[in-house]
Amino acid sequence: MTSPILSWSIVLQLAIVGFALLLGLLALISIFSKSAPLQVNQADDTPPGSLGWPLVGKTLEYLKPHKSNSTGQFLQEHCSRYGRVFKSHLFGNPTIVSCDLELNTFILQNEGKLFASSYPKSVQSILGKLSMLLVSGEQHRKIRSTAVSHIGTSKSRPDFLRYIDKLSSSLMESWKERKRVPFFKEAKEFTLHVMLKNLLDMEPGDPIAPRILQDFLTFMEGFVSLPLYIPGSPYAKAVKARTRISSTLRVIINERKTRKEGYSRGDFLDEFLQKGHLDDEEEVSIVLDLLLAGYETTSGLIALVVYFLAQAPKALQQLKDEHRKLRGNKADGELLDFEDYKQMEFTMTVINEALRCGNLVKFVHRRALKDVKFREYVIPAGWKVLPVISAPHLDPVLHQHPSVFNPWRWEDEATSKKFAPFGGGLRLCPGSDLAKLETAFFLHHFVLTYSWKIKEDECPVSHPYLEFKRGLLLEIEPL
Ligand code: HEM
Question: Does Transit peptide count among this protein's keywords (predicted)?
Fold first, then answer.
């Protein structure tokens, strides 16, 4: 017979489990059920599809990880059932999902008129309300133009290019004694150091740099996790990491403002502090935006190129030839400059093809500002709209054998018209050229210094943020 103490403890355990489940359910409800009106147009001229269970909808299915050179099971099934444009219930809202190139372009080009940026609440509380992705109108224009003008000049500034070049070659040097390299992690460190130099004139030896990197890694883990604010959860840790990064940046900015030498370092901080047009909160937010967007995505691009090249010996050979020829025209140890970059034509096709196949950004978040008529459909005002910018990249009607890495497809000029890895319209990524330049300089050193191999089952995964199954562990050998 069960003793009363034992049965009491079982009842207690069941009660605890029940309570935990209830808490979990309440948390899920709070994440997914926002107060968006679920009004379907009377005549229902919305695109085909199903709104699913209104509470959680199909968000978990939509976000299920898949190989990033495929669109994933959810989109494959929905597109074959309903077509490239369909309705669903995602992120707590009735939603139109678009895998259609023409509609995606239309949505992005009509930012502020028919559609507006609309990231989930969890993204807002982690990026901060002044993040460029979230602000709109005049404030967006002011913050964005500060970033665009800085990135525009720095990408061709000789001292900055020399810095990227030297950082790449010292990274190659640091791998000389190693047989294996956890490549994605090393690429993240590399691109964070490029951005720290570019924005804050901070070099790897600076004692603050490793702290910022650690906080960013924690930040990213939570940024992409389930947004449950439970003490100790990745999301809660990320919110804390963001607060720490913000206060570190605040200290750096204040210290710069009181410097006797004035604004003489020529980095981004000097540039906008000199203009004095941003308020305290905007100052921290813009640096945080650029650091985050600048390092996370570019390291993904570098890793994708290295991943695809490992399986494309012909493309790798042609790339090596291009870089050997470039090196041959330079004196021993002479650093790369903007003119060299302009000559890296095949490199650009390799980078574009890695962006097309690898898909760093799967989709962006928008909402319809008014009822919008597109073809025979109506997108109702207030509905969420998700242009899946990766879908046209993998559409066999637009790109022949879309899952094959083929840099030569870029010889056809039409290819670039079916490609939007950097979004479009008013929110077109301001860092696209910088990301390509960093990748090209890194590749120059990498392909001329090492050969590399990757385990067979490695692959880039869309979570929807980019991850590698095994962290892209490379076996390297000096050439
Ligand atoms: C391969 C690398 C990159 C990819 C694929 C990428 C992709 C994108 C995409 C798709 C957007 C549009 C988001 C939207 O419409 O909601 C975007 C916006 C943005 N990106 Fe990038 N990006 C990359 C590199 C960079 C770099 C290097 C920087 C900074 C130095 C940067 C800074 C930004 C910023 C600040 C925005 C917000 C723009 C706005 O809302 O006006 N990105 N990026």
Answer: no
